[in-house]
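Input record, target 12 of the design panel.
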């Protein structure tokens, strides 16, 4: 009987200790929550930095977007106006072409004004005429032309909304870090579809060509045909918002050099975390020494296909 009382007493003390410990934890967590709500966090100080994005292709020409970075959060600060700029394409250290500036402050060179060679190194020079500054990228080497051995688009036998896209690429002599495939659905007038769904649009631009369905190669070389296979949807919405099925597709196939591949990898992580190119929490790959941004040259080809049944 005495032994049972001792056991009950010990159990009571342990139980009481456990209750006290639990109460302390609850008080600590509650206090911590209160503290976390009361500690103000100062917004980061906005520091203007030039962000340069430049891409060049023998098929599409050259395009450069130059802007200042955007302030994070709700910072009510003025972003500086873009100074007067001149932008040049560099080959072997020499200026070979000048970008033209349009009304939207974008810089471009038409494809017909370019004479690019595979295996050559190119760079971009940005001259700030207002502040007498110069920004020059590192060299980017143009990959081999894209050689397509076979390509087909076939409607799925079980799901008529889907189709299979098969591509066979010829062997390459120079290193190709990544391959991007951008299929663009066409409407009944053979024009690129604008609205894929209520929440998805389609636009043919430089960025989509280098960052869509990217396959990173192992060593960048393949000595036999490289096979790619995708299962895709042919659904889209017409101008009246009615669901339609595309019968034709334009397929852009792109070879990326080392610098653009590193940039696209970082870009994927950036978008996954909800950030923006011009409003970054963490830096992405840049090949400009005194500015944030990237310049790169890429090879591409375009094939128009009928989605066969």
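The sequence produced for target 12 reads:
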């Amino acid at each position: 009987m005495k032994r049972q009382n001792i056991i009950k007493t010990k159990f009571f003390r342990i139980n009481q200790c456990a209750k006290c410990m639990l109460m302390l934890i609850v008080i600590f967590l509650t206090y911590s929550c209160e503290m976390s709500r009361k500690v103000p966090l100062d917004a980061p100080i906005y520091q203007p930095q030039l962000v340069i994005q430049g891409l060049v292709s023998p098929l599409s020409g050259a395009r450069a977007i130059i802007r200042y970075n955007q302030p994070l959060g709700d910072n009510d600060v003025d972003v500086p106006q873009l100074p007067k700029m001149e932008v040049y394409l560099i080959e072997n250290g020499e200026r070979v072409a000048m970008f033209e500036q349009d009304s939207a402050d974008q810089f471009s060179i038409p494809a017909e004004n370019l004479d690019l060679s595979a295996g050559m190194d190119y760079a971009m020079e940005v001259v700030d005429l207002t502040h007498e500054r110069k920004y020059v990228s590192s060299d980017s080497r143009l990959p081999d032309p894209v050689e397509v051995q076979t390509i087909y688009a076939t409607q799925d036998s079980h799901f008529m909304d889907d189709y299979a896209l098969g591509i066979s690429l010829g062997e390459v002599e120079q290193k190709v870090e990544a391959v991007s495939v951008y299929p663009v659905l066409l409407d009944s007038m053979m024009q690129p579809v604008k609205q894929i769904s209520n929440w998805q649009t389609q636009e043919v631009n430089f960025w989509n060509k280098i960052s869509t369905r990217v396959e990173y190669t192992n060593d960048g070389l393949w000595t036999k045909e490289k096979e790619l296979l995708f299962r895709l949807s042919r659904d889209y919405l017409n101008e009246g918002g009615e669901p339609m099925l595309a019968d034709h597709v334009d397929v852009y196939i792109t070879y990326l050099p080392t610098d653009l591949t590193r940039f696209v990898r970082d870009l994927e992580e950036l978008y996954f975390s909800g950030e923006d190119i011009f409003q970054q929490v963490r830096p992405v790959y840049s090949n400009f020494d005194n500015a944030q941004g990237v310049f790169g040259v890429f090879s591409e080809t375009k094939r128009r296909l009928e989605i066969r049944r």
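The CA atoms of residues 262 and 285 lie 6 Å apart.
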